[in-house]
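BUG: 3D viewer hangs when loading the predicted structure for this chain

Environment: internal workstation, default settings.
Expected: structure renders.
Actual: progress bar stalls at 90%.

Input used:
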Amino acid sequence: MNSNERAKVIIEGFKKLTLEQMEQMLIKLGIPTDRKIGSDENGGKEYAKR
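Structure tokens produced before the viewer hung:
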């Protein structure tokens, strides 16, 4: 599998994640997000670090 095919597989896998899972992954990678993670409806009050 070449790098182009590998990138497509990774992107397709990322698209299958929920929005919250995507945001958590971006934060772990050090990419800031302005969205709140875990709203009061979900019982959490965590915010993404900038």
